[in-house]
Design brief:
The complex is a heterodimer of chains A (about 80) and B (about 230). With about 80 residues, chain A is mostly helical. Chain A has 4 helices and no strands. In chain A, about 80% of the residues lie in helices and about 0% in strands. The radius of gyration of chain A is 24 Å and the shape is elongated. In chain B, α3 runs antiparallel to α4 and α5 packs across α8. The chains are: A mainly alpha (about 80), B mainly alpha (about 230). Chains A and B meet through α1, α3 and α4 of A and α3, α4, α7 and α9 of B.
């Protein structure tokens, strides 16, 4: 496996979706290719840093408008029933 | 409206990304999302029976995440709020149609993503081309490979890190950003992402790979070793 093939398979590798034989080939390449190692690690960190991000509390003005609209909808539905 | 949006962009930028946990290179396979708590199905069942409080509890539980999703897709506060509100109202109106073959949260994400996409396409009609083929693998090779040094979260204040994440995802082209948001932030499966966007599984994989590589490249500008802050 060459560098181009490794880059093409990074996503499948990180998502655990590679066939065992392809995974083995890729890992053999990583053993001796420092650049590919760095790229694989950095793509993994990129995914982790976004994946682990947490949403903060909804701003109060947006929250109150949402719940007000919801209550109107609930009332409307209740009147139709 | 556009000017106001532009002026507000910096102020509204970082909160929708949220504080990152420390980076870890030792976890190649992420755990599935635990956002949908175990009692979700009980709340959904109660809401289906007409318990409005149960539905409000579901809304309260997921509102911040759904707003982050619509904000990450539209990158416009007004559109994000509209899309989020419409998603919750539609999910309430069509709750009887929810069959429970997926988590309620996943169903909600699908509705919200579609609402956000509609608004994005309306605002930027020429910038969302999910159905168009993308180029071959030639453009994938990283141009710069620089050491990021020790964990970036040790070098950046939390607020600064939030701004970095928001800035880099904001600069990603919409058709790559949307796939990345659904797959890697909302943690939908590849198949679910394909279904929401109406594209093939290979198209999702191809865009996801490019999105991840492009984001790595953009983050390198901030994370490379020796950069002073």
């Amino acid at each position: 496996m060459n560098c181009k093939s490794v880059i093409r398979e990074i996503s499948n590798y990180l998502d655990g979706e590679l066939e065992p034989s392809v995974k083995q080939e890729l890992e053999q390449h990583l053993e001796h290719c420092e650049d590919c190692n760095v790229v694989v690690d950095q793509v993994r960190l990129t995914v982790d840093v976004f994946c682990d991000s947490k949403p903060v509390e909804l701003p109060s003005d947006i929250k109150s408008r949402l719940h007000e609209a919801l209550r109107r909808k609930i009332k409307e539905k209740g009147n139709q029933a | 409206m556009l000017c106001a949006t532009f002026m507000d962009a910096k102020a509204m930028m970082w909160p929708w990304i949220g504080p990152p946990k420390p980076l870890s290179a030792s976890n190649p396979h992420r755990l599935p999302s635990r956002v949908a708590r175990d009692d979700e199905h009980l709340l959904v069942a109660a809401a289906k029976r007409g318990d409005a409080d149960a539905f409000e509890e579901l809304v309260t539980r997921y509102e911040a995440k759904i707003f982050r999703l619509t904000m990450n897709i539209t990158r416009n506060r007004e559109d994000a709020e509209d899309a989020m509100q419409e998603a919750f109202l539609k999910s309430y109106a069509h709750l009887k149609d929810f069959q429970g073959d997926s988590r309620f949260y996943t169903w909600l994400v699908r509705i919200a993503a579609n609402e956000a996409l509609m608004r994005l396409r309306k605002r930027r009609p020429n910038q969302v081309s999910l159905d168009e083929p993308i180029e071959g693998a030639e453009d994938l090779m990283p141009r710069e490979i620089e050491d990021w040094g020790p964990s970036p979260e040790q070098r950046f204040a939390q607020t600064e890190m939030h701004e970095i994440l928001s800035e880099v995802i904001d600069k990603l082209e919409p058709d790559f950003r949307i796939v990345f948001v659904l797959r890697d932030i909302e943690e939908l499966s590849t198949e679910e992402t394909a279904k929401v966007l109406g594209i093939s599984v290979p198209a999702v994989k191809s865009r996801l790979l490019r999105a991840r590589l492009k984001l790595r490249q953009k983050l390198s500008r901030y994370f490379r070793q020796g950069r002073t802050n």
